[in-house]
Amino acid sequence: MAEMHTAAVVLAAGKGTRMKTELPKVLHKLAGRPMIAHVLANLAPLACERIVVVIGPGMEGIAAAVAPHATTLQAEPLGTGHAVLAARAALQGFAGDVLIVYGDCPFISSATIGRLLARRRAADHPAVVVLGMRPADPAQYGRLVVGADGMLQAIVEYRDANAEQRAITLCNSGVMAIDGRRLFALLDRVGNANAKGEYYLTDIVAIARGDGAACTVVEAPADELIGINSRAELAAAEAILQNRLRAQAMENGATLIDPQTVFFSFDTRLGRDVVVGPNVVFGPGVEVADDAEIKAFCHLEGAKVAAGAAIGPFARLRPGTIVGERARIGNFVEAKNANLGPGAKANHLTYLGDAVVGAGANVGAGTITANYDGFNKHKTEIGADASIGSNSVLVAPVKVGRGAIVGAGSVITQSVSADALALGRGRQTEKPGWAAKFRESKGTIGKGTVVRHGDKAFRVTITRPDGTVLPTGPSTVRIAPAKPALAPAPASVEPSPPARASNGTAPKTSKPAPKATPVVKSKKPAESKKPASPKGRR
Ligand code: UD1
Ligand code: CA
Question: Which ligand lies nearest to the CA atom of residue 72 in the structure?
Fold first, then answer.
């Protein structure tokens, strides 16, 4: 069954001139994966016996990206035919079917390649089967010249085509299946007398026809066969792929609230009833299990989200993050290499790096795991049901035991025992009246200040230039009889009631208030006014 054997040659040695890039063209990514890796993934189901990727000098990056597949060097990019010749040694002794695919043609489906091979294996055994397409804009693709007998006569490159040939809408995708026993003999006869001065692979069709061998075309949808030569084509291809991935995600049972704003990687896996909000980006390696929700504006990469968990809005999950069942990652939380157990929560403004958070633990707002000492990364372990107070820093390596509580604002540098309370912060002290005295020493009056002069008390109100009054607070200052003037305050203080009638009897500031500055006036005796509630002052 020699004819059932398949080898593939993937061409990737072109310079990618139109891309204007230092990076080899086929390493540019689509949906988070290099173009050439898409091609190889599409070839995978065909179980090729040999696959060889033709690369150019300085393209070691491609060799690394395609490993374990073999690469072979085309020392100079003298054309697609010349490139296939570089695979001669790798295909030594191979007598099956040789598939030629281009590294810059990433969307070709395995099914389509299968159809191409099937045609090559049909009873009439055409020597060359070319995959053709009819793109909306045939642009600069090579044109397939088909004879009255329906067989392929030649492929004419756009640059070499006459007006009549350019009018042909059937184009060369570049993909071919060729009789491996004839391939190199045909290529040896290809010349370079053409517009580009290159050895065109496409010329083997006319040569084979000249030998009396049959060549034919299999047509496939153009959107599978686009070749990417420029940044604009790269972006267009990305858009096509994203639309496919969105459709697939919805087909598989996920809700995308605004599909056009969700960006997937080639390998993103979403379970059933997953809800994805607007503006979410999935980098490579993300799995989201059933019933989980990814709220708006999240960025996930290399992360696993278990069933029923909720992420975001505005969360970033970096590689190595595992979010357990029904766990919760809230807004402005970044997690990297962090494993949150079932029901664990980190709801606000937190960095979890190299951390394990036990089931049911709660990580308060503003918590940071300080995992990096400038040289090495260290691990933080938070036990099940532990509670980390807001704005704590856990300086790794450190462990917080099961059920322990860390007081808000703590810097934890030593491990905390299970069920203990750990406080790692300065003790609070209070100096009664200090603030008011401080203000007095500065000679300023704030809004709501109660001014005492002798046995009279005044509450200061501040009137804005538009006549509205600022709300008041409870501070108290005394004006010593010896110093009646509150020297530099840009305000006037008057007794009340009634404010205007008693004008002149109250102590005055030494300077009149500048025009634009609010005028400070007493409104009522202080005793009649309640202090603002503590809640309202938060
Ligand atoms: C090629 C076809 C054209 C077809 C189009 C489809 C030829 C002569 N022309 O044109 O008929 O419509 O693809 O996309 O084949 N490569 C090498 N070494 C080289 C030159 C190219 O490895 O010396 C590789 C490139 O890296 C690329 C592929 O071959 O992966 C195609 O080369 P490219 O220059 O893009 O060919 P096109 O001009 O697009
Ligand atoms: Ca191309």
Answer: 1
